[in-house]
């Protein structure tokens, strides 16, 4: 899949609606359509990067900034002290279904570890 038929690039381009909670020059965040926790936000770079395996050295600051966005949203939604989970899946065996990297920010429930 490339950026022309990438679901998240279509959200970035405004072709598919999303409940956007944050945006800046390099990233946007929107609520997951099928939430796995009371708060479930996806944080994506504007640049199309398919998987973690495709992250280049030049992307390091961009990828790092996704965590700053996660921290910002967690604080905005009041979960900074209570805690929250941040996850990025890579390829099918890990459950990646959209091939444009995204951080899942999950909050508002207890998270069992290790996951079942
Ligand atoms: P992953 O399985 O890690 O690739 O995560 C992809 C996530 O995208 C899943 O949690 C889906 O529920 C979510 N998702 C799929 N389509 C949409 C959409 N149109 N708007 C918001 N979230 C979506
Ligand atoms: Zn994309």
Name every ligand kind in the structure.
adenosine monophosphate, zinc ion
Give the helices and strands as they follow along the chain. Answer: HEEEHEE
For the record, give the distance between the C-alpha atoms at the N and C termini, rounded to a whole number: 29 Å
Oligomerization: single chain
What would your notes on this structure say?
It is a single chain. Strands 1-2-3-5-4 form a 5-stranded antiparallel β-sheet, with helices on one face. It is an alpha+beta fold and 116 residues long. The chain has 2 helices and 5 strands, in the order H-E-E-E-H-E-E. Bound molecules: adenosine monophosphate and zinc ion (ZN).
Topology:
Blueprint: H1 7-12, E1 20-23, E2 27-31, E3 39-45, H2 60-76, E4 85-87, E5 103-107
Antiparallel strand pairs: 1-2, 2-3, 3-5, 4-5
Bound molecules: adenosine monophosphate and zinc ion.
């Amino acid at each position: 899949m490339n950026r022309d038929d990438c679901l998240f690039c279509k959200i970035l381009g405004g072709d598919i609606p999303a409940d956007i909670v944050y945006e800046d020059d390099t990233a946007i965040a929107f609520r997951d359509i099928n939430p796995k926790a009371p708060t479930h936000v996806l944080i994506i770079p504007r640049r199309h990067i398919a998987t973690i395996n495709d992250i280049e050295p030049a992307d390091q600051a961009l990828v790092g900034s996704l965590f700053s966005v996660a921290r910002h949203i967690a604080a905005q939604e009041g979960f900074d002290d209570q805690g929250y989970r941040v996850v990025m899946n890579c390829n099918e065996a890990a459950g990646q279904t959209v091939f444009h990297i995204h951080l899942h920010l999950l909050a508002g429930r207890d998270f069992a570890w290790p996951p079942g």
